[in-house]
Amino acid sequence: MKTAAPLLQTALLLVLLGLMSGDVAYAQQRGKAPRKSESRAAGLVDEADKMAADKKWPEAIDAYKLAIRLDPNYAPAYGGLGDARGLQRASAPCAE
After folding, report:
1. 85 falls in which pLDDT band (50, 70, 90)?
2. H or E stretch including 72?
């Protein structure tokens, strides 16, 4: 029984190390340089954010839409688009 415990511990350690090395490799793979379209989308979102800060809602919305067309997986473009649309509606004069 005493020889089984060290063998079991060694096997468990090897399994855990294997799982951890897989996580490290995946994290390194995710940290790759952004694709060109993603970089362009990020630049457009930055510009759209500046337009939104200046309350130029239609221009900001168009820039966010263009960023989404360039990279449909770039989440900040969707967030900015939603914010810009909501703020545009909130700043519109109320009809009585």
Report:
1. very high
2. none
90's tokens: 């909130």
| C-alpha to C-alpha distance for 49 and 66, rounded to whole angstroms | 13
Beta carbons within 8 Å of 73's beta carbon, 6+ residues apart: 38
Tens-place pLDDT, residues 19-56: 566 544 444 455 555 555 568 999 999 999 999 999 99
Burial, 58: exposed, middle or buried (Cβ in 10 Å; 0-12, 13-18, 19+)? exposed
d(CA 55, CA 61): 11
> What tokens were used for 23?
């996580």
